[in-house]
Amino acid sequence: MLVEFSVRNFRSFLDHQSLSLKATRITEYSENTFENNLLSQRLLKTIAVYGANSSGKSNLLRAMGMMKSILFTNFQQRSNERISFDPFLLNDNSKSESTHFEVLFTTKNHVFRYGFEFNSKAFLQEWLFDHTDNKEIPLFVRIEEGIQVFPEFSEGNDLEEKTRENALFLSVVNQFNGSISNEVIEWFNHFNIIDGIGHTDYRGITFRLLEDKEMRSKLLKFYIDLDLGFKNLVIDKTPFDPSKLPFEVPEEIIAQMTADMEGKLMASLNSIHDILDYEGGKFGETNFNVRTQESSGTNKVIDLSGLIFHTLLEGGTLIIDELDAKLHPHLTIAIIRLFQLKETNPKNAQLIFATHNTNILSIGRLRRDQIILSEKNHNASTEIYPLVNYKVDNRKIRKDNSFEKDYLLGRYGGIPSISDISNLN
Questions:
Q1: Does the pLDDT of residue 256 top 80, yes or no?
Q2: If you average pLDDT over residues 4-26, what whole number do you get?
Q3: What digits encode the pLDDT tens for the residues 294-306?
Q4: Euclidean distance between the first and the last CA atom of the chain, given in angstroms as a whole number
Q5: Is residue 206 a part of any domain in this protein?
Q6: What is the average per-residue pLDDT within 295-320?
Q7: Are residues 133 and 21 in the same domain?
Q8: Based on the domain organization, do 15 and 152 belong to the same domain?
Q9: Which domain covers residue 129, as residue numbers?
């Protein structure tokens, strides 16, 4: 489970900022939290990130994605390749300073704190600590002068000199099948960051779950409960037919795809609808091609549902930017509730999402420590803060406050400052 993520000098983030999933002592909606025995601490199941456009909320989620991407891909780089480096650019010094990423998380048996600092040429620092039982035991520490491996991380011995400046030591050790490094990497395998607007890439996961009898029944129940208008989904697999490609596809691409797809099957998803007579009685059935005949919102729900249920099944952490795009507020809240309720989330999976949907603040049953606000400060960099810590007139926000109304009135910050539209003539 994710406990805390920290970032510094990345895109709109200049100074050190942390997103914590530790539950505070407030009492509302206790079902939105769970006890982590390794930490002796209650953690949050969901976090909602609000803020104006360009406030940095998406950059917070991108930072998580960048950390994972670097960890999973940098060992493949050649020694002279540059590291993906995207620092804060509105400051004289930040372009020459390093970017910092760190996560505190729990696995089945351990609590780890892992992080690194880097520029475009090299990893300047890297560290891994075992934080189990609230004791910090160093496993390895890397500074510019070298890498120190501690006795508890013997799998890293003799690999220090094999680690290039532009490679992470943890990734190198993992290539040699170290047990601790494998445990850390496995956690990152269930730490998924996705875009809620460009969601079509995730449909394959939904296809795989729909072919599993037990998961299929759960997915279909979810769709029917959402009243999407269909009663069943059918996967149709047919031999690849180039004549069904869009007419605007260039001939050379059609030729290449025909060669690549020869003998392979194409899968499409069809929804089953009842045909009704004028009195509302069932007259028959018809199939809709989901991609072309269902709404964009229905397509998004189907595309994301596989990854959502996979996360619930495995107990991982799912981060979604623009969760509410194309969705009715009640559909968005239905997805959130999947993670809040024990019966649908028995493994305490976590959902972190960025949204502009203020209805969630009124009817989403969120705790004050689940609402994170992002805002640009005086030096144009992003700061994030939980609503539970925010004060209005030196008073903390009460649980009976009207969160949506007060947020839209600008009492919590995190909204755009727009000039009087009547003057824009």
A1: no
A2: 98
A3: 999 999 999 999 9
A4: 52
A5: yes
A6: 95
A7: yes
A8: yes
A9: 2-29+49-194
